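Narrative of activities, Objective 1.

The group set out to show that a structural description can be obtained from nothing but a protein's sequence at a throughput compatible with the screening campaign. Below is one input-output pair from the validation batch, recorded exactly as produced.
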Amino acid sequence: MMDFGLVGFSGKMGKVINETFAERDYRMVLKVDGSTRSVDGIPKVIIDFSRPEALPQTIDLCVRYSSPLVIGTTGLDEDEFKKLKELSKVVPIVQSYNFSIGITLMIKMLEEFSSKLSDWDVEIVETHHVHKKDSPSGTAIMLRNAIKNDVKIHSIRIGGIPGDHAVIFANDGEVFEISHRAISRRAFSLGVLRASEWIIDKKPDFYKFSDVIYG
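Output recorded for this entry:
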């Protein structure tokens, strides 16, 4: 049994996370959304998939309950990351803009082979639903960082697409593309579940989702 807290529980991603955790008979004992807060126990882990303005409350809750944090909130600025780094001295944190296992593998591939294509043109195309606030996506920025080049990112906001990302390399004679498509938000909730189970017995530190996948 793993009791958990969820910041942003009523959002689309929050609902999918709760459904995924409930399949393991894990219990949401802390739920937070804006000014709404309900507590029914001590969470072994707190999950935050909300907005940057909720971060102070999330940090306060992690300190109060000595709970590890799994956070996928996008749009965090440099000052907010500093606050997370300070918190990671007290409790372990897994932070990522994307908890998809496929995207994590895609990043690893780019880190390993993109240098072999350093003389090729390269651009990134990312597509998300119309309600996504940040542009470019945090995932697209992670992909660009993996390439270690100032790659141009094209952002498309249309329909209800959970997340499509493509990195396109080309020279005068050929095109090479690596892409990933999330067919539902469950792609991310399964990663959040894996990160939450992994972080329970870890020492305080700032971890990436790749640490969860690769150990």
